[in-house]
Amino acid sequence: QEVVSEESEEESNGVNLMEFSDEILLHILSYVPCTDLVLNVRRTCRKLATLCLDKSLTHTVLLQKDYKVNKDKVKQLMRDIGKEIFQLNMAGCYWLPSSTIDHVTRCKNLVKLNLSGCHVTSLRLSKMLSTLQHLRSLAIDVNPGFDASQLSSECKATLSRVLELKQTLYTPSYGVVPCCTSLEKLLLYFEILDRSREGFMLSGQLMVGESNVPHYQNLRIFYARLAPGYVNQEVVRLYLAVLSDRTPENLHAFLISAPGSFAETGATKNLLDSMARNVCLDALQLPKAWINGSGLLQHLKFNNPFYFSFSRCTLSGGHLIQRVINGGKDLKSLTSLNLSGCVHCLAPESLFRKAEDDIDSSILESLVVSCCNLRHLNLSAAHHHSSESIGNHLCQLLSRLKHLLSLALPVCSITDVAASVEKPPTAPNLVPQTFGRKVRIGIQTYPRNLADQANQKIESSVFWALMGSLRFLETLEIIGSSFSSAMPRNEPAIRNSLPPCVRAQSVGDSEVAAISQLTYLQSLTLAQLPNILTGSGLVNIGLQCQHLRTLSLANLGMMGKVVYMSALMDMLKHCKCLRDLRLEQPYFCAGAQFFQALSHCSSLQRLCIVSRSGTLQSDAVMSFMANCLEVIMCHMFMGESLTVCKNLQQSIVRSFQAERPALNVVIFPLLHEDLTEVIRDVPMRHLDEITLFKSRVAEEPPNLWW
């Protein structure tokens, strides 16, 4: 085969790939999934057989989004290179049977292991960890039935050497935390439901004893993320109880993400007081009730902070500047800032201020100047209205942050002040005013190309200028300040949504077109843009943003009709790299034309459609699944009957499950009373990353886990 290959290359005078240097070939091979390298590519020729087993390619094995991997492939992979693997990431491999974990025991030299989302019993975990004496980093799930008493002494010895632990709890438990006596980093994800499947209320009480007490004396990073529910709050308090007795001296990151109300107690107050006296932090996130109305921020000490989150807090801009930025202190170390839902953070005080009042541009300017190296900024879920002062618009000030990689803004913050003042709210059947050109009543004209769009929108558009200045932005979220998804967590679907902000009424197609300047854009979220009339800007994005991998659109234009369907279908024909698509729109028709356009997205892996009163064509869905071979997740929550949904779901599973082991299909009526029961069976990877709508910019500190 090598001789034939060389002869054919010589005959065609082409470039022979094998003539490249080993360094270049190794770089190319680093983009190939490890399973393909070891099980396929290395069998092609002797040179590749050697290169595919190079330590740079086998040191770290990532299977977390290799949706084609199955039990047999994992078994063969571990048999061939198990001893060469030092880091193994199998996070979210929910489709693999629990027996697959047994083959990890071949990786004797493992230092890092991520099994989040995998099915692991107490006994299997014990057997596996007993053989991994070099393990220092571990991520696991703790499911109902987990019993720490089944862990062997050899397993506990391994756990005692673990320095980093990520633990996702689906049942009230300490998990393996008490065994990890050397912990420096602890990440806890609380996903415990308040009720069992049988409808019984769960208790958050845990057994308390000497053997169950967590060991935090070496802890440097503590992170806890809570799903909604009272039990999650009960359990996390037990984890925090030990911290309140003795705060670790080396603690430099303390983060608790809790939705809704999470009241402060005497124990947590003692913990925060102890932190104020004894530690110097680099990262901070606290429940809003722990910050609101307290002088905590005034007493906490910060060293070189890299992450702050004050999400949903009533923190005023005056307090933000005085207590966090110290009146304009140089904070070049800060790379990620989450002010989502912090409605008064850009105002000097909040006592007599309405949420819709204009922001104080001097506060935002102080923030931009002090935190000039910000890479991730979230200002969503608030009304940030700029005044008419020239040069002080929010978009103009943010354009100074040249290092931004991800940005989340409310829709009302990007509108031109003059346009929003002069222009009354646009009714669904009215045509908005435009600059410089008369428009016939009933007919809206749009620029023919991007250059015309720039000339028409122009220098007076602060949002267009902002997009032009942030050329390296990879993630952008523009979300209506009053938007709420029809699929909240652990609750029935929302039937009514709040109207958009008055300032947002002028934001539409031209603003969307401005986004097409972001050449390196990878993830885009647009929600509650009321003035979308045709969606023409989406086509520009499809043409210009060729790196786009994730697209989420929700409630664009009129609610009674999907006005942008034609433009969306044109856009999809150009999205060759798109992997995740989420659409949330009432009355959405998922028919043959839509799925035919979607079939052009050859890289698509996950699709989620949420539509009150929406319809679907079963034949079109089946044809789409047959044409798009990479799709492994299909979630549709529409207005169809339960019978139609169940029949389609069963047909997809029967037809494609065998060849797509990771296939996850949920098709269910959006307003059905059992929706929450169906949602609880969705793999956490899909639920957290695409099915549930949320702002993800600066949601966690960067590089929190490998």
From TrEMBL:
One GO process term, biological-process aspect: SCF-dependent proteasomal ubiquitin-dependent protein catabolic process
SUPFAM superfamilies linked: F-box domain, RNI-like
GO cellular component, one term: SCF ubiquitin ligase complex
Pfam families xrefs: F-box-like, LRR_FBXL18
Domain F-box: 14-61
Name by which UniProt lists this protein: FXL18 protein
Organism whose genome encodes this protein: Grallaria varia
Lineage, highest ranks first: Eukaryota, Metazoa, Chordata, Craniata, Vertebrata
